[in-house]
Amino acid sequence: MTQEQPVVIVVDDDPSIRKAIDRLLRSVGLRVELFESAQEFLQSNRLDAPSCIVLDVRLPGQSGLNLQRDLAAAHMRVPIIFITGHGDIPMSVRAMKAGAVEFLTKPFHDQDLLDAIEVALEKDRALRAEEKFVAELHERFDKLTTRERQVMQLVVAGRLNKQIATELGISEMTAKIHRSQVFRKTQAVNLPDLARMADKSSIANIKA
């Protein structure tokens, strides 16, 4: 079940830093989960809620940068805010190029962290909304028959009913009926909408 209340995951081996961040975030009504290592975080059960990670660069065992890399490789697109007491420019560039939302050097201002978390949580909400939409599109496209998929690909390519009929060896009326079914099942309101859906779900590239 989806938990709508956002959660901020804090991974830092310094208990005083964890406690300070925990107190700060709870003071503004955020839910917080604390971990002292990347391994401890990876072994935990993630809540299905908008989230982000406040991640120390230098950790015992697996480093924060390596955790960022491994999460990306596993397609776990959780926005990350790096914090470090030993930051340098090459390190921050590497983190930002890999998709980090922010790179803060300790000691940082509370408001800078809160601002970065707000950006990160909004980014995760957008990602989740996009993933939900794509999943819904796949459900709609799964309802299409093989012939309707063929017709849809031609419709998206800009073919008229007469051209679709000729290319598929069917009557123009049959092509028109299939076209109507495609729009009904996908809930597309017009051709640009259908093309956008097909592109987003990659269904147009699937050979029937």
Produce a short descriptive summary:
Helix content is 55%, strand content 12%. The protein has two domains: 7-132, Rossmann fold; 143-205, Winged helix-like DNA-binding domain superfamily/Winged helix DNA-binding domain (Arc Repressor Mutant, subunit A), CATH 1.10.10.
Verbal overview:
- This protein is an alpha/beta fold.
- The chain has two domains: 7-132, Rossmann fold, CATH 3.40.50.2300; 143-205, Orthogonal Bundle (Arc Repressor Mutant, subunit A).
- It has helices spanning 15-27, 38-42, 64-73, 89-97, 110-141, 146-156, 161-168, 172-186, 191-201, and strands at 7-11, 31-35, 51-56, 80-84, 102-105.
- Strands 2-1-3-4-5 form a five-stranded parallel beta sheet, with helices on both faces.
- α1 (15-27) links the parallel β1 (7-11) and β2 (31-35).
- The two termini are 35 Å apart.
- The model is unreliable at 203-208 (pLDDT under 50).
